[in-house]
Amino acid sequence: MFRIVGDIYDRQKLIENWEQERLLESEVAVIGSGTLAHYLLAAIAGLGIGKVKIFDNRKLTRADKKEGFLYLLESKHPPYRSKALEGMIRKINQDINVRGINWRFLYPSSTKIFEKENVIIDVTNDPISKSVVLEYGEKNNIPVILASADENSGKVYVMKDYSKVREEHLLAEYYGKRQGIIASGIIGGIICEEIRKILMPLDEEDENIEEFHFNAFSKDRFGKEEVPSFLRKEETENDLLVEKPEENPKEKRKLKDKYVFMVGAGALANFLALGLAKMGIGELNVVDYDRVDITNLNRQVLYYDSVGTKKVYALTEKLRRINRRMIIFPIAQKFTSRFDSYFRKHRPDLILDTVDNFRTRYLIQKFSYKYEIPLISGGTGPFSGQVVTYKPGETTCVNCHLDLKKGAEEEKKILEEYGCLQTLPSVVTSNLIIASVMLNEMRTILLPEIYGPPLNGVIYYNSKGRKRLSILRSSNICRCHEKYKGVK
Ligand SMILES: [Zn+2]
User: Fold this and answer.
1) How many A from CA of 401 to the centre of ligand 1?
2) Do domains 23-215 and 249-484 have the same CATH topology?
3) What separation in Å is there between the alpha carbon of 479 and the centre of ligand 1?
4) Do 23 and 33 form a contact (C-beta atoms < 8 A)?
5) How many CA atoms are closer than 13 Å to the CA of 349, on its beta-carbon side?
6) Residue ranges of the chain with pLDDT lower than 50?
7) How far apart are the CA of 351 and the centre of ligand 1, in A?
8) For domain 249-484, which architecture applies?
9) CB within 5 A of ion ligand 1: which residues?
10) 447 C-alpha vs ligand 1 centroid, how far in Å?
């Protein structure tokens, strides 16, 4: 029998000054039921915020299945979207007192429904709702987070200092737009970390950001730049004013022919696989030999009912509910040098590296050199992370950036001395953010004609950084893969 030990917060309780009780006693209101709300709510559930109210007044229809991912996982069909979200969030974390409320913030009097919320988060694309909530927050001196997203961009404003309220905080430019998977993942993760900082700051430097911007078409990605610089080269000023189609059918058709190989089925992989399924990737092969453990559940949000099951099978089962057309091939094995024959036979369009040790990361890198397969490597700590995109001959490799070889040697020494690697703390937010950044960079490999060339450098996430996400560019392109030419 598989024995359940520990609790779902074990891995975040390892963090210095973390007070799980404080989060469990906190109360938040989330307004909205679109894709951004799905990611935010899943992250809130992982974090273990005790009391969550979800406000939305829209009915749940068949067409809603296109939005987010929680409606696809929910087998029941309550009449309202807020109720469907309530049901799913309760599944992800049973400790949470969650309530879906059929409500819309249309007039100042609509705020009479609020009770003792510690923070109110509006993730609609509705400026009226935002103005009502903002006024309430200002009057009652309650922190309010205003955020919106569309298919490829998003913004967050953290309102604690109401002396600086501006019209742009209502995010009217997002009105009526559809919220995309990648933008919602990045924005949802950023918001969740800001909520955590409001409810449970870990030290004096653990401060809120005032605003955060994301734009997939911007060279800076996370800057304030409004005009997509990548497009600026080819398109005229006027063309830029024409909005991009919200869901690009051509993009989906092209992704249907793509085949992705993913190493690992943990926290990063949960959000990556979810994104791949939603984006319409043709085939995903995923390798991992681990079973779902209760201490995974604070961040591996798709495994809520799968403790004891092999992760790749639990993942496959959930992905099939999200995208029935995607071919998913689970490989319940340890990733070793034996996979050489796999890569010789199959040539995936991309390898996603989501592992947590240098040894495996270096092995993945070597396969990427040898078979000249593009690689996107992501890693996280509780408050940090990094993403490297490697396209042989076009960018600098992961090893040149992060010295995997040296890391692997140090790991070996620790293993020889202690017999195992230390259990490291882990939270949902950094994993959601990094996985979403990886999905965004993935499009430069799979759809360069739309998203431009791959980024040569490292994208860093730092929860205490001024910008949260920043890019360290490299001017060099390494030739490491050439050493493997002709190697059998
Ligand atoms: Zn290199």
Assistant:
1) 8
2) yes
3) 6
4) no
5) 18
6) 1-3, 227-246
7) 16
8) 3-Layer(aba) Sandwich (3.40)
9) 397, 400, 478, 480
10) 23
DSSP states along 446-467: H-HHHH-SPP-EEEEEETTSSS
Q: How far apart are CA 185 and CA 189, in angstroms?
A: 6
**Quick one: residue 235, left, alpha or beta (phi over 0 = left, psi -120 to 50 = alpha)?**
beta
Domain boundaries, the chain: 23-215, 249-484
**Tokens at residue 34, please?**
């679109």
Per-residue pLDDT at 251: 84
User: Which pLDDT belongs to residue 3?
Assistant: 47
Q: What residue has token string 């020494």?
A: 413
Predicted pLDDT of residue 146: 98
Alpha-carbon distance values, 203 to 17, 206, 210, 430 (Å): 8, 5, 18, 18
Q: What is the pLDDT of residue 240?
A: 38
Place of tokens 């739309």: 450
Candidates 3.40.1010.10, 3.40.50.720, 3.40.50.300, 1.10.3720.10; CATH matching 23-215: 3.40.50.720
pLDDT of residue 245: 40
The CA-CA-CA angle for residues 265, 457, 147, to 5°, reads 65
Q: How far apart are CA 469 and CA 209, in angstroms?
A: 12
What Å distances lie between residue 186 and 150, 212, 359, CA to CA?
A: 12, 10, 28
Instruction: Supply the pLDDT for residue 230.
Output: 46
Three-state DSSP class for 157?
Answer: strand
Q: Tally Cβ neighbours within 10 Å of residue 249.
A: 8
